[in-house]
Amino acid sequence: MSAESLERRTRNYLSNNVPQIQEHGGHFEIEDVDNETGEVTVAIGGACSGCGIAPMTMRAIRHRLPDEVDDISKVTVRRAGGPRAAVMPDKTAEMEEMEEYKDYEPPF
């Protein structure tokens, strides 16, 4: 299997199963694919950079990609940077303490 094939399958999974990223003005980039080790690095940016629950999305991607895309052994997810990237504080811990988010799972 080629790295391009693994990259394509990763991109297809994210496009088809994590539409919230694009629907909310964000985007993702497949930054690196190591076909031999199965390690994939994904960056999320755009509106995701300013989203307080981006860490929950990142965690979901990190946990679900290896289960859903054959040959992926490890996923690293980071926020896309840049000199003007506005990053909101992580709201994950605060949300996990709120009753309405007790059983929250991103819808993908």
Automatic annotation (TrEMBL):
Highest taxon listed in the record's lineage: Archaea
Region ranges (Disordered): 1-20
GO biological process: iron-sulfur cluster assembly
Basic and acidic residues: compositionally biased ranges: 1-10
InterPro entries in the record: FSCA_dom_sf, NIF_FeS_clus_asmbl_NifU_C
One Pfam family it belongs to: NifU
A Gene Ontology molecular function term of the record: iron ion binding
Residue ranges of domain NIF system FeS cluster assembly NifU C-terminal in the record: 19-75
Signal peptide positions (record): none
Gene3D superfamilies: Fe-S cluster assembly (FSCA)
Official protein name in the record: NIF system FeS cluster assembly NifU C-terminal domain-containing protein
Organism: Halogeometricum borinquense
